[in-house]
Amino acid sequence: MSLSARQWETPDTLHTKEWLRRYQRIRQASERLCQPLCTEDYVIQSMDDVSPPKWHLAHVTWFFEAFILVPFQPRYRSLDPVYDHLFNSYYETHGVPFPRPRRGTLSRPTVADVYRFRAHVDAAMVELLESPPPEHAAEIMRRVELGLHHEQQHQELLLMDIKHILAQNPLCPGYRDDLTPAPAEPPGELAWLEHAAGIREIGHDLQTGFAYDNEGPVHRQFLEAFRLANRPVTNAEFLAFIEDGGYSRPELWLSDGWQQVGQADWQAPLYWVQRDGEWYHFTLGGLRRVDPHAPVVHVSFFEADAYARWAGARLPSEAEWEVAAREAAGNVMHGNFVESGHLQPVAASPGADAASQLFGDVWEWTGSAYRPYPGFRTLPGTLGEYNGKFMSGQMVLRGGCCATPADHIRATYRNFFPPHARWAFSGLRLAREA
Amino acid sequence: MSLSARQWETPDTLHTKEWLRRYQRIRQASERLCQPLCTEDYVIQSMDDVSPPKWHLAHVTWFFEAFILVPFQPRYRSLDPVYDHLFNSYYETHGVPFPRPRRGTLSRPTVADVYRFRAHVDAAMVELLESPPPEHAAEIMRRVELGLHHEQQHQELLLMDIKHILAQNPLCPGYRDDLTPAPAEPPGELAWLEHAAGIREIGHDLQTGFAYDNEGPVHRQFLEAFRLANRPVTNAEFLAFIEDGGYSRPELWLSDGWQQVGQADWQAPLYWVQRDGEWYHFTLGGLRRVDPHAPVVHVSFFEADAYARWAGARLPSEAEWEVAAREAAGNVMHGNFVESGHLQPVAASPGADAASQLFGDVWEWTGSAYRPYPGFRTLPGTLGEYNGKFMSGQMVLRGGCCATPADHIRATYRNFFPPHARWAFSGLRLAREA
Amino acid sequence: MSLSARQWETPDTLHTKEWLRRYQRIRQASERLCQPLCTEDYVIQSMDDVSPPKWHLAHVTWFFEAFILVPFQPRYRSLDPVYDHLFNSYYETHGVPFPRPRRGTLSRPTVADVYRFRAHVDAAMVELLESPPPEHAAEIMRRVELGLHHEQQHQELLLMDIKHILAQNPLCPGYRDDLTPAPAEPPGELAWLEHAAGIREIGHDLQTGFAYDNEGPVHRQFLEAFRLANRPVTNAEFLAFIEDGGYSRPELWLSDGWQQVGQADWQAPLYWVQRDGEWYHFTLGGLRRVDPHAPVVHVSFFEADAYARWAGARLPSEAEWEVAAREAAGNVMHGNFVESGHLQPVAASPGADAASQLFGDVWEWTGSAYRPYPGFRTLPGTLGEYNGKFMSGQMVLRGGCCATPADHIRATYRNFFPPHARWAFSGLRLAREA
Amino acid sequence: MSLSARQWETPDTLHTKEWLRRYQRIRQASERLCQPLCTEDYVIQSMDDVSPPKWHLAHVTWFFEAFILVPFQPRYRSLDPVYDHLFNSYYETHGVPFPRPRRGTLSRPTVADVYRFRAHVDAAMVELLESPPPEHAAEIMRRVELGLHHEQQHQELLLMDIKHILAQNPLCPGYRDDLTPAPAEPPGELAWLEHAAGIREIGHDLQTGFAYDNEGPVHRQFLEAFRLANRPVTNAEFLAFIEDGGYSRPELWLSDGWQQVGQADWQAPLYWVQRDGEWYHFTLGGLRRVDPHAPVVHVSFFEADAYARWAGARLPSEAEWEVAAREAAGNVMHGNFVESGHLQPVAASPGADAASQLFGDVWEWTGSAYRPYPGFRTLPGTLGEYNGKFMSGQMVLRGGCCATPADHIRATYRNFFPPHARWAFSGLRLAREA
C-alpha cells in the first residue's frame, strides 16, 4: 500500500480498514520473523550494538505506547510502568533510557510477557485506529505511519542481530534450515554507466508520501560528471583484493581503518572463515561456501573504501547514487528484499547498459558522511531525536538489502552506520570520475 | 551420607546403591534449585564472574563426562563434540575453554538441550556406577566424589549468580516468592572468646574422608593467643560504620580497597538501596528491608577489613578460624545452610561463652591470602587445575553460608575470592590479639 | 613572499637566494617559538594527541631529511639511523613509525641533540638549495615548499601543545609572561550577511600557487541561499549558553556529543575554571579572567554544534564559509595571527555589513565532514599519506587562528579535527538559511 | 653507621654531628645517583609505576618538609605551597595527592628548581638537627631516621625507574658507560641446605635498632622442615626453562600468571631481547649479552613461581628465608649492593654447604603474600600510611639487590610488589620440603 500525499494531508478520507490492515500486517511480520527462534535466542546481546530480539519486539511496541497511546488515548493503562524505562531506546527528553549495553542482562519481562505486551498495545491501537479522536486524527496517523516504518526498520535489525547472535556460537546454529541458496550465475564484466554534470534535485519531497525527516528537504546539488558501476562488487572480486594483500597494505586504507584492521585483526569480511583453503561464511541458513558471484556483504566502510582505492575507483557520493537510482528505478523498486526469502545477497546478470541491484541485496556504502541537508528540520518534540542527533561519525548507505521489507525502501532513504560497522548487510558499488 | 576413610580406600566394599542414591540426590538437587527459573533466566550472564544457570547445569555434567565417562566408559558417546569446548570452564590442559566472558552469548544448546545432556550423562553414569570396571573402580569413585562436591559447589554458585542476575533488573523479580524472612531477634552484645597460644594442627587429614586438595596436608602452625567474636558482625553494626563515614575515610582502608571504593562508588554492601531514608536490600525473595539483627552479607574483603579496623579489631587468620571452628563444632556442623530454606543470613542468639554461626549464614572473610599449605600437592593430571592454580590474588573465606549444602562444608574448607568480590554470601567475624 | 604559479611550475627561474631566505626564515621561526621553554617543557606529552616540543622540532627536520636529502642528496649522511624511526609521524609506507602515544617516553635524543640534528639538516639543505641537481630541481622545490608549509603547520601545533602541556600543571606556568591582553571592546550586535543561491567554484586552483592536495581540485557546488554571521561567537554569548543550562540539556546535542559531555564531565570550554563565581581561563600568558568580548575558543565541534542549535542557527558548510571568505578577503588575509603576538583571540568591532575575523583569531568549525573533493588525488608516493588518509571521522575548520603564521593560511585551507577535540584554537561562527 | 637501640631510645645522647653526617651522606647519595642523567631523563614517566627521577628527588625532600619541618620548625617557610600537593605520593590523610599516572606531565618545577628545593629543605634540616627543640627531639630523630631510610628506598627506585625509562628508547642509551661487567664464573651445581622443623622467632625486635613497622612485632612461627637452595637461579637455568617451552605450558602457571603471559606476550624476562639467536638484555650499562652464570633478574612472581614448579621445587616462605638468612649472615650482610658499582647481579661461587647471595644481587620472591604479622600496628598518624595500607594483592621479596644501599637492608626487611611486576631487580631462590 502506498499512501499518497493527499491521504497524508487529509487522513479523514483514508479508509479505516486499510490503516488497520497495514498496522496488523506489519506488526505480524515482526512476530513471523521471530517464529524460528528458541526462547533462549530472544535474550542474547552479542555485542553492545546488538539488542536481544525480545527487546526489539518490545521497543517497537513501546513506540506506539509512548508516542500514540499515552498522549492520545486517555483510557490506556500500561502493563508495567517500568517498561517505559526498559524499552526507551535513546529518547533522552522522554526519560532516562535503560543502558543499552545492559539490555542482555534482562531475563524479565519474559518472551511470553513481551508478546502479552504486544497484544495489549495492539488491542488499544486497534481501538484507537477504529475511532481516532477527530482533533488528533491527523497527528495520530502521522505517528502511526512513522511507528510502522520504525517497526520495519527494526525487522531488518532483528535479522542482523539474530545473525550476529547465532554467529557467536561454535555450534553454528542456522536461523532457518529451509533457506536454499540462490543459483550462482556469473554476473559478467563490470560496466560503467555515465552520468552528465549538472544541477540535480536531491532529497524527498514531503508532498509525495512518507519519508524520514533526514531525507529532506529537497534541495539542489551540482554534480560533476561521474560514472557508476552497473552492479555491486562481488565476492570473487573482493577475494582478489584479499589475495593481493589488501588487508596488509597500509597505503590502501584510511588511517582509522588501518588502525581498526590491526586492532581487530581483520583479514576478510565479517562472518568469513577459511577451512582447508576454502572460504566459508556464516549466513542465516548456516555456514555456507562463499558464492563468488554474489555481492560481497558484511564489509565496513573502511573495507569498502580500501577496496575502491585498490580498484582504482572510489565510492559514489550519496547524491550520485540517488540520481542513478532514480533514473534506473523510476518509482518501482525491484530487488532481493526480505520477501524474496533468500536472506542473503544473490548473484545477478545485469545488462551492461543499466544499473542493477541498486535496491536490495546489499546496502551500498557511499562516500558521504551522514550530515543534515540544507534546511533540515527535525520533527518537533521527542520524536526529533529519531534521526538528527546521530549526524556525526557515521557514513551513509543506500538502497536497502536482502533483509529490508520491500515497501520500506526509497531512492532517498538514508541509512547510516559508523565506518567500522560490519554487521549490517553492507556492500559496495564503485564509482569514478567521468 | 558420610564416607569413612576405609570406604574411600576400599571402594569395593561400598554399597553400590548408596553411591547411586548419593549421585542422584545431588544431581537432582541442582535441578530442583532451577525449578523457579524462567527459561530466560537460564541464559543471562550479568557480569564476567557470573555464569548463566544453564551453563552451570551443563558444566557440572561435563565434569562427569570429561573426567569419568570418556576415560573409563568406552561405550560412551557424547551428544555433541562442541560441548567439550563450551562447558570446559578453565582446564587448559584438557583443551581450549570457551571464553568465560562470552558464556552469555550462547543461546544454544537450549535449556531443554541442557537437560537432555544431563539425562544422557546421568544414564551413562548410572550404568557405570552399577558395574564399574574393577581395575578403575577406586579412581572412578574418587572422581565421582570429587564431581559431586564440585556440583554442590556450583549449587551455591547457582544461587549467587541467580541473585546477581535478577538484581540487575529494574523489575526486581524475586527468585522465589514463598521465602518468608526469619524472625528478627537481637543477637545480644558481642562477646570475645579467648584462645591460648600454641602449636596447632591445621588442615585436613586425607585418612578421615573427602576434602579438596587445597585443604591439606595437615601441618603445624604456631598461633599466638587470640580472641574471636562469638558471632558475625550484624547489619546494625555495619550500619553504624556507614553512618560514621566509613566509606569516606581513607585511613580505614587498604590502598587497593580505597581505590575500589572510589571507582565503583561503593556506599554500602552490594544489593543495598536506600529509599526514603530506609535501607533495603535485594534478596532471593525480592526487595526487603534490611534486618538489623542478621549478619551483614555481600561485603568484600576490603569492606570487611575496613570495618574491622574501624572497630579496633582485625579479621582472624584462617588458622585461627579453623581452630575455633573445630573446638566449637566437633564433627557436627549446624547452621543456616541451603536446606533451611531461608536463602538469606538470619539473626541468632548466641550465648556469650560459645561461638555461634561459624557454619552457615555467611562465609567469613579471613585475613589470610589464599596460598598453598606447606607440602601441598595438586591432584595429578588435569584435575590438578581444580584449585591450585588460583592461589594468587585471593583471600580465604571459611564456614559456608545460607546457600551452601550442609554436607558440603568442613572446618577445613577453604573458599576464596578476590578482595573486591561481593556477590558471594560473604560477611565477617572480628578477631583480636589476646 | 608569495610564489606565483609560474614560479612553482618553473623553479629554475626562482632566485635561489629567495628560497634560501624563506627556508631559513621559517626554520628559525620554529626555534624562536621554543625560546621561552625550559628544557623540561620540551619532553612532555600531556595526552596522546600532544607531541613533546622537541619531537615537533625533530619531526619537521626529519621531513626534509627523509623526503629531500635522502632521495636527492647522495652525499647526505644521517646522524643516527634510529631517528628515521623516531621522527616518522605516520608514514606507514616509509617505515614503521615509533608509536605516537610513546613519544613522551623519549628522553634521548636530548634537546641539544635535536638542535644539532636541525643544524645538521639545515647545513645539508642549504647546500642542496644553493645548487640543486637540475634534473630534480622542480621536484625538490615542490617538496621544499611542502616541507616549509608542513613546518608552519607544526608551529601552530607547537603552541597548541605547549599550552596543553603547561595547563596540566597545578603551578599554572605561563609560556610567556610578556604577553599583554588586548583591550576588550564590545563587538556590537551580531549581524547577518546574505548570500544568494547559485553555482560556486570551490577549492584551490593549482595554477595559482601552493596549496595542499586536499584543497583541490576546483569543482562546482550549488549553494542554496544562506546567511552568515558577521563575526564569531563571543565568550559572553557562550556564557549565556552555559547559564541557560546548555551543558545539561540533551536535546541540544548530537548523540555522540552528549555522551562525551557525560563521560568527560564538560561544563565549559577547555581551560575554563571558575573561581569565586568568576570564569578564568588558562592562556599562553597564564591564567586570566575570561574576556567577554573576545571570540570563544577551545570548544569542540560538539559544543559548537550545540551552541548553534541553542541559538536557533547552524554551522556554515565549508563551501559557504569559503564563498564568504573569498568575497570578504579578496586575496588579502588580515587577522590576528601568530605575528600579532597576542596568542589569544581578541575582540573586534566589525561593521554590520561586512564579515570580520574570518581569518585569524579562531579556527571556525564548519558543519562539513572532512571528505575528499570530487576528483581528489593524493600526492604520489609516501607523501600521499600527508592528508588523504585522515578523511574519516573528522570535521573541517576554516580560517586559521591566533597561532597560525599569516602566510600559511588560505581561503581554501581545510583544517580538520575529530568532533570532540578542543585543544586547537577552535571557535565558531553562526549561519542560517536565507 | 649502625644506630643502637639505646641511641634510638635516648636521642639526646646521640652526637649531633653524627646525625648530620648521616643526613648529608644519604641526601648526597641521591644526587650522586642522578649525576649521569641528562635534564630530559629526569622528566620521563615510562609507565604508571615509574616516577620521573626529579619527582623522586623532590618527593623524598617533601617527606622531611611535611613530616618534620612543618610540624617542628615554626620558622620554616615552604618554597611553593603547591609542592605539598605535587610531591605527596599517597598520603591521603595529609591531603589530596597529585595523581600518580600524571607525574610525567609536570615540566615544572624544573630540575634546577628541584635541586633548589632540596637545598632549601636541607638548610632548614641542618639548622633543626643542630639544635632540635628538646621536647620534640626524640620524635624528630625517629622521623629523621625514617626519612633517611625512605630516601634510601627511593635510591633503589631511582635506579629501577631510570633503567625502565632508558629501556623504552630505541637508542638504547646506557645510564653509565663506565660500568664493566663482572667476570662470569660458573657458580657450580645447586646444592640444598637442610633446615629442621621447629618454632622460630620471626620479625624485628624494635629494641635492637631501626626497622619499618611492617617488620614487627617479633612473633613465633612453626616451620616444618625445609630445604633451601644455596644460591639463586641463574640465567642459564632460566634459559633451560624457556627452551623447554616454559612460557607456553599452562600447567606450569598460576591462572592469573597464565593470563598475564598471554596478554603481555611474555616470552622471557623483562629487558631480554633475542638477536641472531643470542639473548641480550638491557642493563644500566646498556645492551649486553646475557651472562649465563649470573642470577636471573627482572622476573615476576608469576615467572618465579612457574620456574619453581617446572623445577620440581617451590618458592620459600618469607619465614623460611628469614631463618636461613639469619643463620647465614649473623648480623653482617655482605653482598653485591649498590656500592659495589655493578648495578647488575653477578655470578658467585658458593660452597655447597652455605647459602650465598641471600643479600644483594636480586630481591628474592617468596611464596608469602604481603600481610600483617600478628600484633602488627601501623605508625600513628599519617605515617601509618607508609606500609600497612599496601597489604593486599602483593607478594613479599627478601634480601635486597644490586641497587640497594648496603646499610638499608636487614634480614627482616619485607619488600613487596604485585605478582606481575618485573621492573624491580627481582629473581628467585628455590626451596623444597625436607
UniProtKB/TrEMBL annotation, chains A, B, C, D:
Name of the protein in question: Ergothioneine biosynthesis protein EgtB
Membrane-traversing stretches: none
InterPro entries recorded: CTDL_fold (IPR016187), DinB-like (IPR024775), EgtB (IPR017806), Sulfatase_Mod_Factor_Kinase (IPR051043), SUMF_dom (IPR005532), SUMF_sf (IPR042095)
Species annotation: Billgrantia tianxiuensis
Residue ranges constituting the DinB-like domain according to the UniProt record: 23-156
Any GO BP annotation: ergothioneine biosynthetic process
One Pfam assignment: FGE-sulfatase
This protein's record includes keyword Iron: yes
Signal sequence interval, chain numbering: none
Domain Sulfatase-modifying factor enzyme-like: 196-432
This protein's pathway: Amino-acid biosynthesis; ergothioneine biosynthesis
